[in-house]
Amino acid sequence: MPLGSASKTGEKRQKTRERLIAAALAVVLEKGFVAASLDEIAARAGMTKGAIYANFAGKADLMFAVAESQSLTLQPAYVAGGTLADQLRATADALVATLPRVGGVERLIVEFQIYMMAEPELRRRAAALQAEGLAALTAAVAANYADVLAMPAADLVAALQALSLGFLHQHQLTPDAVTEQAIRAAFDALARGAVR
């Protein structure tokens, strides 16, 4: 097999997956996760249901990919050599920058949470991804700030996660109350309280 064949096959598979995810997203936005049928998704993508099973383990796997495609993951700029307060300010800035995107996907986020509660495998998968991300962040916080922390790194990371998610969810309900000032003040307060 020529060397280029494997990469072309991989590209074709990736494009097929992207088409299926886009079609699934369109159906989910119209009908919700539960009512979205694989037949309708396949038809919307111009493919057969077999194409879905060739690229995803099943409906739950495809729905997880749809949710991931719309995820609101924060990616704060790393402040090399900065203090914990510097890094938490960067996290607050990343959260502020993410808020405008919440309006477009808030219904999707809520519906996926409900759908996930009825799908134990999805809950396990999401929990494993969350645990992996939290563990990596905990290791980074401990490596950079263990000498100044007044609390275990894992507790600080849990607080950061809760604070970020809390602001995202509150913004869905009362967007005018979730101001840049409120977000930055909360992260600054957490930074002050987290160090000795």
Could you please describe the fold and organization of this structure?
The protein has 196 residues and is mainly α. Helices cover 77% and strands 0% of the residues. It has eight helices and no strands. Helix 1 crosses helix 2 and helix 5 crosses helix 7 (153-173). The radius of gyration is 20 Å and the shape is elongated. It starts with a helix and ends with a helix.
Question: Which runs of at least 5 residues are low in confidence (pLDDT < 50)?
Answer: none
Number of helices: 8
Overall morphology? elongated
What value does the Rg take, in angstroms? Answer: 20 Å
List the helices and strands and how they pair.
Elements (H helix, E strand, L loop, with lengths): L2 H29 L6 H8 L3 H7 L3 H11 L14 H34 L2 H26 L7 H21 L6 H15 L2
Provide a short characterization of the protein structure:
With 196 residues, this protein is mainly alpha-helical. It has helices at 3-31, 38-45, 49-55, 59-69, 84-117, 120-145, 153-173, 180-194.
